[in-house]
Write a structure and sequence with these properties.
The chain has one domain: Na+/H+ antiporter like fold (Up-down Bundle). Helix content is about 80%, strand content about 0%. It is built from 16 helices and 2 strands. Strands 1-2 form a two-stranded antiparallel ribbon. The chain is globular, with a radius of gyration of 22 Å.
Length: about 400
């Protein structure tokens, strides 16, 4: 028998999730910031008003499960919008652009860590906290802004894949260093080979693999079709997790393979409602883990992290996009779409705290993520305006240069 407390907890969660979605829809805004805000407002770190706590929801295994399903659905859907063939066709330029983007952001993270902290643990943690964008938030933004089918979104997907590979390897390196105090080459190479091999296998043999799914998904019953798709999604997440790869990456790769089949549109129809439902719960649950009381003491560090991330992302995003063959407005769409930080930042902060890192890191990470959760969607939505502003400055500079050249001639 289901406990009444659990049902009440879930009811409140879905009430606030629905409220955030309705309000954001009326205001024509992304629902992500509002979902995170409501999570903060009603979760375990809720404020007290007139002596009464506003906490209405208690996190538990159920909310954690729904959140993990949300991430799986978001990444699975994004994979369905593309295909293994499309990614493979991007080939060398996509890989080089993604590697350059991650490398520049990682170096920026190390510099930030060295600037504000002294211990090796803190510096490495800051690099992990600031380097990787939130796949869930970026995916939701692409869906909200209706850019999933845009040409540059294929490169954004490539960046997410490279980021997932990097973070899986870096996590093993980081945990190894803080656990033993030294870098272990053996586990590092094994992890890298496992992740790289899995991705290469999907990209090279995706079309051959989908022959199996092409036949297996020929099911007339919608009920059977839905259950088989969900089972495949969960199994793919568990399977890749066994070799040290994030479960969300397994969902993304499965989506890339199924996108090559004739059932892709049918799968999308199954996934879309679940994506919206569980994805919203993920962002709400994410907000419940943010303690606003720690913000006051770390606000200047967090703002420095935000400024460095925004400036660094624009620079590295534009440069990587240019290397991958995207110019003009498309390059700006790439740079401004991947600002948000999320689940992996929280993971690194928690690992750092458990290993004795500076107490400032937890509060800094929470405020850093919260600011970017609002700023990221704003920047992504107004990318065209920023691009047009950049073009006006560029044109003005050209005119002034022409005038100076004419004066020089005379």
């Amino acid at each position: 028998m289901v406990q009444t407390g659990l049902l009440v907890n879930l009811s409140i969660i879905f009430i606030f999730v629905a409220l955030a979605t309705v309000i954001s829809s009326r205001l024509n805004l992304s629902s992500i910031p509002l979902l995170i805000f409501f999570g903060m407002l009603t979760g375990p770190f809720a404020p007290d008003v007139a002596g009464f706590s506003l906490q209405l929801v208690t996190p538990g295994e159920t909310t954690e499960l729904l959140s993990r399903l949300g991430v799986l659905m978001l990444l699975f859907y994004l994979g369905l919008e593309f295909s293994a063939g499309k990614l493979a066709s991007g080939g060398r330029s996509l890989l080089l652009g993604g590697v350059l983007y991650v490398s520049l952001n990682f170096l920026r993270g190390l510099a930030l860590g060295k600037l504000f902290f002294s211990s090796l643990n803190d510096v490495l943690a800051v690099a992990g906290i600031t380097v990787i964008s939130s796949s869930a938030i970026v995916t939701k933004l692409l869906v909200d802004l209706r850019r999933a089918a845009n040409p540059e979104t294929e490169f954004i997907l490539g960046i997410l894949v490279v980021e997932d590979i990097f973070i899986a390897v870096y996590l093993s390196v980081y945990t190894g260093i803080i656990g033993s105090g030294e870098f272990l080459w053996g586990p590092f190479f094994l992890q890298t080979l496992a992740i790289g091999g899995l991705l290469l296998f999907v990209l090279l043999f995706g079309k051959k693999i989908n022959v199996i799914f092409e036949r297996g998904l020929r099911l007339r019953s919608e009920e059977c079709f839905t259950l088989v798709v969900i089972a495949l999604l969960l199994v793919s997440g568990v399977a890749v997790e066994k070799i040290g790869v994030a479960e969300a990456t397994g969902a993304l790769l499965l989506g890339l393979v199924l996108a090559e089949t004739t059932h892709s549109r049918r799968v999308v129809q199954v996934v879309m409602p679940l994506r919206d439902l569980f994805g919203a719960v993920f962002f709400y649950s994410f907000g419940m883990g943010i303690n606003y009381r720690e913000f006051g003491e770390v606000i200047f560090i967090a703002l420095a992290f935000v400024a460095a991330t925004v400036a660094g992302n624009i620079f590295s995003g534009l440069l990587a996009s240019w290397l991958a063959g995207h110019r003009g407005r498309r390059a700006f769409y790439v740079a401004f779409a991947v600002m948000a930080r999320g689940e992996f930042s929280v993971l690194f902060a928690s690992l750092a705290a458990a290993s004795g890192a500076s107490w400032l890191l937890s509060g800094t990470t929470a405020l850093y993520i919260f600011i970017l959760a609002f700023l990221g969607p704003f920047l992504a939505k107004n990318t065209r305006r920023f691009y047009e502003f950049f073009q006006r400055i560029k044109d003005l500079a050209k005119k002034e240069n022409l005038i100076d050249n004419k004066k020089t001639k005379f």
